[in-house]
Amino acid sequence: MPRVSVPAVVVLAGGVGAARFLQGVVSALPARALTIVGNVGDDLEVAGLHISPDLDTVLYTLTNNIDEGRGWGVRDDTNHALERAASLGADAWFWLGDLDIGLHIARTEWLRDGHDLSEVTARLAAALGLEDHLVPCTDDRLRTILVTADGELDFQTYYVRRGHRDPVLEIRFDGAADARPAPGVLEAIAAADAIVIAPSNPLISIGPILAVSGIREALRERGARCVAVSPIVGGEALRGPAADMLRSLGHDASPSGVAALYEGLVDVMVIDDVDSAQADAIRGHGVQPVVTDTIMCDAASKQRLARATLEAAGVVSAHDD
Ligand code: FO1
Asked: Is the CB of 111 under 6 A from ligand 1?
């Protein structure tokens, strides 16, 4: 496939794994070539503040503000506000640093002034110096709910408060049926030269994006090649509960299990060398496998994975620097 000189690339992204992958993607593309469509199913309100953890993780990572060790929150942030709240007896279970709280105050104020989440996100991204487009999948309220033996849990109660230890019996996306894609999302997918699904949990990070009415259909009608990167390597998730969750919901915790979930939506799946034996099973889902080293441990490995993905999508060639 001929190289497109300034390709338009859309990446569907969850949180930490996606953000690290996106660092490699950004380094392989010209500035402003990228539109990142982010998950908002994890959003929550804390003390009246609107928090969008996945959007913030991508934003902080790509603007070099991220706490690299945790993968979320602001580097070298202090915790005075939450420590004081906890010492006064408040139930401070969702840990927000002081600088992070500043961003949530701005976001919440602008939302209360009547601006949509996509406008607010663009304003925050510009303020922090992000050159690429970061767009929430929807401006409407969308919340991931996990059904467990202990009842229905909102996402952050399941993930942070209870340490994602509850077997998940069912996943629901409250609001999805009425949620409309945020401005620019469908247009970006339709105009893309390549679409990439980041190595994020297919059920709770990519699932909410695909649940927004119109986005799955737009992907099915895509003109561009769509490449997914498997978040499962050797039967385990590189981070988070994806493998356990896939199993408890009756899916295979394997790249081919992920390919089955993306059947009809993706043309290519990038899988790790240790999963090369999965190649035929992936082809069985109508998806072409690309086998490479997918472990991201430093800048070079992030760039290598991003380039392999963008090569598979036909928007960079092996000869480009
Ligand atoms: N993860 C935790 O494990 N504990 C926390 O207290 C926590 C706070 C937090 C605050 C802001 C933010 O942007 C992310 C935060 N995360 C925390 C991470 C977050 O729960 C997850 O990364 C995503 O929601 C899953 O993609």
From this structure: no
Instruction: pLDDT tens for the chain, 321 residues: list them.
Output: 455 478 999 999 999 999 999 999 999 999 889 999 999 999 999 999 999 999 999 999 999 999 999 999 999 999 999 999 999 999 999 999 999 999 999 999 999 999 999 999 999 999 999 999 999 999 999 999 999 999 999 999 999 999 999 999 999 999 999 999 999 999 999 999 999 999 999 999 999 999 999 999 999 999 999 999 999 999 999 888 999 999 999 999 999 999 999 999 999 999 999 999 999 999 999 999 999 999 999 999 999 999 999 999 999 987 666
Ligand 1 center to 37 CA (angstroms): 19
CA distance 100 to 107: 11
- pTM equals 0.96
- Going by CA atoms, what residue is nearest to atom 12 of ligand 1? 53
Give the distance (Å) from ligand 1 centre to CA of residue 71.
9
Residue 317 Cα to ligand 1 midpoint, Å, equals 36
Write the burial class of residue 28 (CB in 10 Å: 0-12 exposed, 13-18 middle, 19+ buried).
buried
Q: Does 77 sit in the ligand 1 pocket, CB within 6 Å?
A: no
SS3 243: helix
